[in-house]
Amino acid sequence: MGGSRHRSKPRLGIVELAVDPADVDRDRYPVRIRLTRPLTPFEMDGLAVAEPGMHVEGDALVVPDARLDDIAHDRREWAGRLERVESLAGEREGESMVADHRRVEEQTRHGSHLGSQHEHDRGLH
Hints:
Helix 1 packs across helix 3. Strand 3 and strand 4 (60-66) form a beta hairpin. 53% of the residues lie in helices and 18% in strands. The N and C termini lie far apart (56 Å). The model is unreliable at 1-6 (pLDDT under 50). It is elongated, with a radius of gyration of 23 Å. The protein contains three helices and four strands. The chain is an alpha+beta fold.
């Protein structure tokens, strides 16, 4: 197995819900949704699109203005939201890989001509 990176990562899932006990006397408060793993950078981008206002702390999403009971009751809905975040991340990661591949192809194609192009440009000035 050496140093090769595994491409397959566990699906995002909810491990637990947590709140600061000092907050529960208020009507609404931050609720932490601890996940099965930390979000990837692409998933964080997807989260920003799919769930504006939420932020990430380590392996947890923080819903800034909620109630524990509401999130616990809507656990299936939250699982669907996490799937959407993963789906958006997959699309963005795919787009990024295609863009990177195209950029490398462009550099390779133009790289061999740069020296002669540079000298040609210099002769025009």
